[in-house]
Amino acid sequence: MDSPRILIIPGSARDGSLNRRLAAVAAATARAAGLQVTEMDLRALALPVYDGDLEAASGVPAGAHELRQAIATSDGVLIVTPEYNGFPTPLVINAFDWLSRIPPGDGQAGGLAATANKPAALLSASPGPLGALRSMNFLRQYLQMAFAMLVVPQQFALGRANEAFDGEGALKDARAAQSVEKVIAALATLARAMPTPR
């Protein structure tokens, strides 16, 4: 595999989101490293809050199928999430909860099959000093245990993120930029090491 396909998912969609800004830095870093990058807006998937009655009445929403397809056709997934009360955002958890409900059919893998053994990596950003580290650690457990994703050990939490970007959207601190590069490199290395899907 010469150029892994990386799917980047910000865990916040709001205007001015620090994690969207960090995701943009990651995307630019990945492209500079020769990777193919797709960026996904979870809010654009228009997923309602998961409800078993809604699923029974209407099935799994189209947005969840779009997420499944994006993950299935990627070689690695990078999630960049803030912290809501010490936990990953409802936007991320709800999207993956819906994803888990997709059964196989029409020659397509189910949601859990699409994530199984898929390389993943994590970044986070917060105005606080820990940089949303707690949410990353919860998300690591969630993705590994519930979705069988292979989350690389390397991760980076950007603290004081409200002061971390320059006017062009780049990271001011060279060490922070290098930390993002290391996470991207680890994800790319694992993606290259995985068997090519049939």
UniProtKB/TrEMBL annotation:
<dbReference type="InterPro" id="IPR050712">
    <property type="entry name" value="NAD(P)H-dep_reductase"/>
</dbReference>
<dbReference type="GO" id="GO:0016491">
    <property type="term" value="F:oxidoreductase activity"/>
</dbReference>
<feature type="domain" description="NADPH-dependent FMN reductase-like">
    <location>
        <begin position="4"/>
        <end position="162"/>
    </location>
</feature>
<dbReference type="Pfam" id="PF03358">
    <property type="entry name" value="FMN_red"/>
</dbReference>
<dbReference type="GO" id="GO:0010181">
    <property type="term" value="F:FMN binding"/>
</dbReference>
<dbReference type="InterPro" id="IPR029039">
    <property type="entry name" value="Flavoprotein-like_sf"/>
</dbReference>
<protein>
    <submittedName>
        <fullName>NADPH-dependent oxidoreductase</fullName>
    </submittedName>
</protein>
<dbReference type="GO" id="GO:0005829">
    <property type="term" value="C:cytosol"/>
</dbReference>
<dbReference type="InterPro" id="IPR005025">
    <property type="entry name" value="FMN_Rdtase-like_dom"/>
</dbReference>
